[in-house]
Structure formats: C-alpha cells, structure tokens
Design goal:
Number of helices: 8
Largest sheet: 4 strands, antiparallel
Oligomer: single chain
Order of helices and strands: HEHHEEHHEHEEHH
Radius of gyration: 37 Å
Distance between the termini: 59 Å
CATH topology: Outer membrane efflux proteins (OEP)
CATH architecture: Up-down Bundle
Strand content: 5-15%
Helix content: over 70%
Shape: elongated
Amino acid sequence: MKNFLCFGALMLVFTPLFAQRVLPLNEAVELALKAHPSQKAAALNVEARQYAEKSAFNLPNPELNAESPTGTFYAVGILQEFEFPTVYNRQKKVAMAETDMARVAQSLNANELRYAVRSLYLNAQIARYEAMMWGRRDSFYQAIAQSAERQFTAGEIDAVQRSLTQNEAGMVHMERQVAQSRAAAFKTELSRLLLTTENFEITSLEADTSVNMVPENRPDNPATLLELASAGVAARQADLAKSKAMPNFSVGYLNQGEQETPIDYRFRATMSIPLWVGQYTAGVRTARTEEQAAFARAESERLSADMELRTLQTERNNALETVMFLKNEALPRSRNLERDARRLQEAGQMNYPDFLRTLDQTFSVEETYVMQVQRLNAAQLRLAYLLGQ
C-alpha cells in the first residue's frame, strides 16, 4: 500500500512534465513569424536598405597633391569634385524607394509564411482526424472479425463469410497504420516549419463556416504591392539617370605660378560637359522601360488575383453547402443506418457480406465529410492569402 501511494504521488508530480501543450493555429503562425529565417532575412534587408539611405549623399574624397609647377618650389593643393546637386537628392529618393520595396517584400514573405503554416496545420488536422477515424473503424472491424471467428467455430457461418470479414478487417487495419503514419509525418513537418522541438498537440478539426464577402474595393495583395514598389524604384532611377546627364563640378586650390602669386589666382574651378548624351539617354530609357514592365506585372498580378478570388468564392460556397448537408443530414442518417445494421446483424437477420457493405457505405459518408471540410478550409485559407490576411 505504501509503495502504491508513493507511485501515485510521483505520477502526480511528473505527469505535467510529460503533458502535451495544445498549440492553436494563431500561436503557430506567430511562432513561425518570430523564428523563421526568411522573416529574419526580410527584416535585415529592410535594415540594410535604411542604412543605404544614409549613404545617398556620397561625395568623393578630396584629393591632396604636391607638385612643382615652376621647378623652383613645391606647391600643396587640394581638389574636391561633386556631381550636380540634384543627383544627391534623387539618390536619396532611390534609396527610400528601395527601403519601401524591402518593407513590402517583408510583408509578402510574412503572408506566404502564414499561408504555409496554415496549410500545413490544416493537413495535420486532416491527417489526425483520419487517423482517429480509421482507429475507431479498425477497433470495430477487429471486433467483427473476432465475432465472425467465433460464429465460424460454432458452425453458424460458412468459410466465405469468415474470410470476407478477415480481409476487410485486415484492410482497415492497414489503412489505420497508414493514417497514423501520415498524421505523425505532418506533425513532424509542422514542427520543422515552426523550428520547435516542443512536444505539442494541434487542435481538433473544425469546418470554417464563416462567409466573409470580398469587398469590391479591396486593397492590393502583397504580391501586387511588390510590383508597384518595384515600379516606384524604377521611376526614381529614371529621375536619377536624368540628373547624371547634368554637368559635374570641381573646386580646388593650387599655386600654378611663382611663390609671390596672389591668393586670388591660386584657386581653380572646373565643369564637365556632358557631350556623350547617348549613354545617359539609354539609362533613362532603361529605367522607364523597367517601370512600365513593373506596372504591367502589377496589373497582371491584380487580374490573376481577381480571377482566383472569384473562383475561390464559388469553391468555398459549394464546399460550405456540401459540408452543412453532410453534417446536418447525411452523417446522422449514416450513424442511424450503422446502428440499425448492427442490430440486424446481431439478431441474425443480416449476413456478413450485406453488413460489411452497409458499413462501408456509412464510413464513406464520413470520409466524404472530411474531404469536403478540407476543401472548404483550404479555400478559406487561400482567400485569406490573396487578401493579404
């Protein structure tokens, strides 16, 4: 008795240590957004672009020189070159546009990561539900096979019915093992995506029956916004290329005459003449063409998203109607049919072939229900992805 009490006390102490924490979907998404390397890389890219803004005003280093222009003494001079003033302002705008694009890219990465986690979580939920479903079915069929074995030994059924029940029980048991293996595999993949070694459990599968209408004036999704940001960068680069076609300047100090040369005549100033206009024009045209291409890609992305949204809305509505019919009508009827078939078989009023065929029909309704829930929830997840949610 004393040993039993000690064992019970130890179980009370250590059971919480081995208990699995339920990890809801929203916590899984937050965990991925905090820990996944792609999000860290996107955040660092934004930080790097912000540093680049500070280097937009990049004057070349001044030149110090010493030379003997007259051959009688050394003169020390200094020379500073700089570009046309608008160049620095437009370089700053290019850097700011690239920072904005990096932020949009970070948002796009987060949207894709959310969708990946939600999709994998849904697959894990489906696999877990199917493993439990096949587990219940396996237990039931094993009991049927044992009952058939007893009846065969007692001479109540023939070898055909016995073999039929054994085959069905064996097939169901194999399906159970496959379903359990798939459930474990999806859970492992989810752990890897979340970069966690925590022993967690996912929530039970539920049909997402919410019907959120897509607004007509919806905001663009992150993929479209990224193309628009790319067009903004190209526009700023075109303005910068125009400024590059303006003259450069330099100012300096160097005595080119005798030591007694007045200070006023020791300074120098130069201005470059942009004669080779073609190379600057080509740069502007390149940037403008890239801008137009980015706008075209954004419009293509917008049209593609609109088409997919309309298709997904239809898919979601159809799946929702099917799920509600199966849940409210087909599943209750199949459970009643299963109960009636059991009663008839136990009373000897239904043979095993008809009994097993009836059970297959009832279980197929539940399989169809799981498939339709997956179809419905997958459409909901894709809609949220296209809306940037």
